[in-house]
Write a structure and sequence with these properties.
Blueprint (H helix, E strand, L loop, with lengths): L5 H4 L3 H16 L3 H7 L4 E10 L5 E12 L5 E8 L4 H17 L5 E8 L7 H15 L8 E5 L5 H15 L20 H20 L7 E5 L3 H12 L3 E7 L2 E4 L6 H11 L9 E3 L1 H5 L5 E4 L18 E3 L8 H9 L3 E3 L1 H4 L2 H15 L5 H26 L3 H20 L4
Parallel strand pairs: 3-4, 3-5, 6-7, 6-10, 10-11, 11-12
Antiparallel strand pairs: 1-2, 2-4, 7-8, 8-9
Helix pairs in contact: 2-4, 2-15, 4-15, 5-6, 7-8, 7-13, 7-14, 13-14, 14-15
The structure holds nicotinamide-adenine-dinucleotide.
Length: 422
């Protein structure tokens, strides 16, 4: 039965990212030279760096910063702390950022970073030391005009504050635009914390209108209960959905009558897990994906929906809040079965879009109201959904391939117009 476990599938996500690009390049009949350029990252930096732990022992950590393409603007992409980070994973995530920024048409290229570490094993002081030294090691690449990191799995506003402070100390003055996702008091943007989930909900509103599904009363299952997942749960409950199941790395909970996300949040804060929340049955992360529901929101890690479980997924809409949760084989199965998939580079682009607003506000030292931010985000998400859906209908392709076609065509145009140097 091991092969029934979707997590066991784990194809190399860099190979997946290239395969997804190839499909779009074929559809666009992209020039061979351009394909070779866009198929690989422009720069990759690997750093091994020491951190003194609380017990006085020196540990050496490995981290990466990858820039995939800079034709449309500076690199943009999060930094992930996880024990399974690899160069291939960071490459894939960097490439996806290029397409994501192009898909929603914001003026950035794609980058990503990661450190191989299980942050739960480190104290706050050790995490700060690790973050400051990692920032120093990647500082030849980052900067507000070059490459702007943001939070990703297991990093947050505090991590961004340490990166901003470290970079500013190197230069002798405050450079708030070097990262986004900062605390509000040091140049962060209102609405950034909720932006990924909010953007995903806007695309879900668009998708449900397209399919004629009423979100009110729709049952939602959400895998992953961090920034993206827990806030999506609250916003979807606000839209009248019944959030019937949620999970985190320790397991999942299910109540067909619906959960109150605010109460689940309080439980998780107190117990460190969603599991055990009163009035729910326990489900595994694999079982959660196959529950009876109209909307499934993967909001954890990659490779969760695979050829093994895709035939059993009951949802009518899959909204990819996570990056890369669906393998290409699973994509094909879901498409054939008529499941409407909102692909990651569209669905979770709300995070980078409000990061873009944060960067613009930092550059101008002029800060917007939350109302303006949410309205501007909605405009961008709705336009992007419209272009992708239009492309899907025109070429009779999946929403994933359509999103890639919109994005790759924009990056290809910018790269061609700029020409090859020298
Ligand atoms: P996070 O660290 O806040 O939360 C991750 C959640 O996933 C946690 O609840 C964790 O317990 C859970 N998780 C970890 N491993 C799991 C597993 N094997 N099975 C089930 N759950 C597991 O991270 P986040 O920022 O919410 O990111 C989640 C996903 O969304 C990632 O794929 C990330 O790349 C993507 N994303 C995040 C943002 C953002 O702005 N935060 C933007 C775009 C995309």
């Amino acid at each position: 039965m091991a092969s029934q476990n979707p997590v066991m599938e784990a194809p190399n996500i860099w190979a997946v990212a290239q395969q997804q690009f190839d499909a779009a390049a074929d559809q666009l009949d992209l020039d061979d030279g351009l394909r070779r350029v866009l198929r690989v990252p422009k720069r990759e930096l690997t750093v091994n760096f020491p951190v003194t732990m609380d017990n006085g022992r020196v540990e050496v950590f490995t981290g990466y910063r990858v820039q995939h393409n800079l034709s449309r603007g500076p690199a943009k992409g999060g930094i992930r702390y996880h024990q399974d980070v690899s160069l291939d994973e960071v490459r894939a995530l960097a490439m996806w950022m290029t397409w994501k920024c192009a898909c929603v048409n914001i003026p950035y290229g794609g980058g990503k970073g990661g450190v191989i570490v299980d942050p739960k094993q480190l104290s706050q002081r050790e995490l700060e030391g690790l973050t400051r030294r990692f920032t120093t090691e990647i500082s030849p690449l980052i900067g507000p005009d070059r490459d702007i990191p943001a939070p990703d799995v297991n990093t947050n506003a505090q991590t961004m504050a340490w990166i901003m402070d470290t970079f500013s100390m190197h230069h002798g003055y405050t450079i708030s635009g070097v990262v986004t996702g900062k605390p509000i008091s040091i140049g962060g943007s209102l609405g950034r914390n909720e932006a990924t989930a909010r953007g995903a909900v806007y695309t879900l509103l668009d998708a449900s209108a397209t399919l004629g599904i009423d979100l009110r009363g729709s049952r939602v299952a959400i895998q992953g209960y961090g920034n993206a997942g827990s806030i999506a749960a609250q916003l979807l409950a606000n839209e009248g959905c019944a959030v019937v199941a949620v999970s985190d790395s320790t397991g999942g909970i299910h109540n067909p009558a619906g959960l109150d996300p605010a109460k689940v949040n309080a439980w998780k804060r107190e117990h460190g897990t969603v599991v055990g929340f009163p009035g729910t049955d326990e489900v595994t992360n694999a079982e959660l994906l196959e529950l009876e529901c109209e909307i499934l929101v993967p909001a954890a890690l990659e490779n969760q929906i695979t050829r093994y479980n895709a035939p059993r997924i009951k949802a009518r809409i899959v909204a990819e809040a996570a990056n890369g949760p669906t393998t290409p084989e699973a994509d094909a199965i879901l498409y054939d079965r008529g499941v409407f998939l909102i692909p990651d580079i569209l669905c979770n682009a709300g995070g980078v879009t409000v990061s873009y607003f944060e960067w613009v506000q930092d550059m101008q030292s002029f800060f917007w109201t939350e109302e303006r931010i949410n309205e501007s985000l909605k405009g961008i998400m709705d336009r992007a959904f419209g272009s992708v859906h239009e492309m899907a209908k025109r070429h009779d392709v999946s929403m994933r391939t359509a999103a890639y076609m919109v994005a790759v065509a924009r990056v290809a145009e910018a790269t061609t117009l700029r020409g090859l140097y020298p």
